[in-house]
Amino acid sequence: MSAQRRVDIISSDRTPPCPRCGQEGLLQARVPHGWVNASGALVQGRNGVVLCATCDADQPHAAALITWFHVNGQVEVGAEHEFKRLLVAWAEHVHVPLLDERALTEEAALWQEGEL
Ligand SMILES: [Zn+2]
């Protein structure tokens, strides 16, 4: 399975507030996640993740991105490359608020048993 993950930035003038602390978020990204379930099928999904200057400050990869925002304010033309590099690094390590994997597993089991 490819480890490559494409991250979509949801660009908006109004980044939603951080779901953890309620402060204004720096950016919102849709981060794909996927895993191979018990039956060998790739399960994929996308979760919206808000980068928060407060809650994510302790996370190494998030910290670099937060610093970038502090320095640059916003993404300017010509700066995308560095921004994307930091963004991808963050997305690779971001803790995606996971779906209930056990529920999914149970659902997959039911599926296999023909219950669904
Ligand atoms: Zn927060």
Automatic annotation (TrEMBL):
Classification via InterPro entries? DUF6300
Source domain of life is Bacteria
Q: What keywords sit in the KW lines?
A: DNA-directed RNA polymerase, Transcription
Pfam families (alphabetical): DUF6300 (PF19817)
Annotated Gene Ontology cellular component terms = DNA-directed RNA polymerase complex
Give the protein's recorded name.
DNA-directed RNA polymerase subunit RPC12/RpoP
